[in-house]
HTH-type transcriptional regulator TreR (Actinobacillus porcitonsillarum), 313 residues
Amino acid sequence: MKLTIKDIAARCGVGKSTVSRVLNQSPNVNPKTRERVQAVINELNFAPDRTARAMRGSTEKVIGIIVTRLNSSAESQTLSRILNELYAQDFTPLIVESQFKPERVVQELALFQQRQVDGVILFGFSALKEKHLKGWKKAMVTVARAYKPFSAVYYDDENAMKALLSHLYQQGHRQIGYLGIVDSDETTGKKRTAAYLTFCEQHQLTPYLAKGELSIESGYQQISSLMSFPLSILVCATTGLAVGAAKYLQENQKNLPLACIGQNPILQAFVPQLITLDFGYEQAGVTAVNLLLNQLENSETAIVHHKIPFKLI
């Protein structure tokens, strides 16, 4: 016999409205009650009846979105375009945050399944593996990282770094420092760092390198280890690192030109001479929505991996 919300409520000793709020991720539920209800839902693999929902007249179209960090400038730019595109197509977004934790992604995907969302846009990261995403083929598009069974939108990390460094080299810079991300991050970290080191080797430049975490605080802390070198410019792997570096330079009254991958209007306002590279974050948002909606409309649509172009500003 198919379980209903009423059955779940009876097993948990709560009202049907409480179960409904848990399913809809409403914040108006006591945390202990939510945990108890969610445990029963998970144990019974319960999902609301889509037919019953339709009979009640609910035709809401919902897309689940999993970002890694809501405070990321890059992801916020992509997310903003995603939301604009979804609103234009009368889809309702349901946004959650993974905080770079695979277990959080698995949990949120289970909740999306219970909510019977129409599709998912997922911001991938290095620790997240294909096995964590099973069951969503043809109903998911990933951003920033490509997984073979899913359509994906990703960035040209190595060539973007090469283009930025070539531009600086043409301007006459020969002592180019680099503030990067640890190699455990395979794209923003490992690939961009490798491109920097390869460029230095090819052009017989001394590499001046410091690596840290993906945060403003890390940029502020790591730049100090480079200040003893005679740098002509400092390249930052992300705008967040550049914000931290700019803060350090201002506080210590040091004058060092900055360049970075990505755009941040606030950073550019405070560092007028900043050299930036448009990494295509907004275009990624548009493309991700188009790929997902095409798949939802036609299950025979081929899996597509789309590399977003970049341009120097």
The two ends are 61 Å apart (CA to CA). The chain has three domains: 5-55, 62-155+282-312, 173-278.
